[in-house]
Amino acid sequence: MPSVPAALRFDAVDLDRVSTPVLRQVAFTVEVGERWAVLGPNGSGKTTLLELASGYLHPTRGTVEVLGERLGRTDVRALRPRVGLVSSSVAKMLQPGLTGTEVVMSAAHGALEPWWHRYDDRDRARARALLETAGFGHTAERPFGVLSEGERQQVLLARTLMAEPDLLLLDEPAAGLDLGGREKLVARLASLAADPGAPPIVLVTHHVEEIPGGFDHALLLRAGEVVAAGPIAEALRAETLSATFGLRLALDRSDGRWSCRAV
Ligand SMILES: Nc1ncnc2c1ncn2[C@@H]1O[C@H](COP(=O)(O)OP(=O)(O)OP(=O)(O)O)[C@@H](O)[C@H]1O
């Protein structure tokens, strides 16, 4: 039987920007079925790592394999639609007048606006079902531009899931959300994490409190280098987190959720 390729594999990856190293010797592997949290201070290279994982950047040295395809040896135009990316840069490209349903539906054909393609009733029903499942059915008919930050993030997540990606990448989805918005998003991600049909997930976040229950792996980055990577109980510890942020930190876990403070 052929073995299933890893969802994401970085091997000795360096990424230089204007000859400045941004990532150095980064190595980790996300297997199918795994859910990873990526943590690190501002500027440590988290977004850059997602840009490689989504095929928008190529490594300067080393190898990146996405869904079994090696960057530099594959047509990224065919690869990118298989990778779902939730990031603020996508939100900025959407027309504020589109309804929640239209924003979600537009993903079915990889477009930013729904009228560039024909949609059928099944597309519309599926888009609405994704919003309903998240508990955000009330956004279906509202213009995207008037939605709250929390509602927008849920619509963007539903939009990304609409395209049925084989790998799901999230770049700080809880940034700017209030406590309620954050908890609803974390709950939605926890239910995705528990869904065996959901794709592998890589979530970039600044806060351990935003790691949903069921996330089983962590990658800690400091100044472009891996401090720890692997199963979450080993990679995410007070020592590794302290080394990552250059602070003495205490880390707690309760009911599958994490919390952290300086000591
Ligand atoms: N286009 C670019 N040209 C030059 N340097 C860049 C470019 N994009 C990012 N960088 C630099 O690369 C480093 C890593 O940036 P990146 O956005 O990946 O960090 P991050 O960990 O996501 O940060 P944050 O938590 O603040 O979002 C930073 O020092 C940044 O200034």
Describe the protein in words:
This protein has 263 residues and is an alpha/beta fold. It has one domain: Rossmann fold, CATH 3.40.50. The chain has 9 helices and 12 strands. A 6-stranded mixed sheet has the order 6-7-8-3-9-10, with helices on both faces. Strands 2-1-4-5 form a 4-stranded antiparallel sheet, with helices on one face. Strand 4 and strand 5 form a beta hairpin. The longest helix is centred in the C-terminal third of the chain and has 16 residues. The N and C termini lie far apart (51 Å). The mean pLDDT is 93. The site of adenosine-5'-triphosphate has 11 residues, from helix 1.
Low-confidence stretches: none
State the helical fraction.
25-40%
Summed over residues and divided by their number, the pLDDT gives a mean of 93
Task: Examine the secondary-structure arrangement and name the CATH architecture.
Answer: 3-Layer(aba) Sandwich
Determine the number of helices (DSSP H or I, runs of at least 4 residues): 9
Provide the number of structural domains: 1
User: What sort of overall outline do the alpha carbons produce when their principal axes are compared?
Assistant: globular
Strand order of the largest sheet: 6-7-8-3-9-10
Radius of gyration, in angstroms, nearest whole number = 18 Å
Question: What are the secondary-structure elements, in order, as H or E?
Answer: EEEHEEHEHHHHEHEEEHHEE
InterPro entries: AAA+_ATPase, ABC_transporter-like_ATP-bd, P-loop_NTPase
Pfam family, one: ABC_tran
Protein name: ATP-binding cassette domain-containing protein
GO molecular function: ATP binding
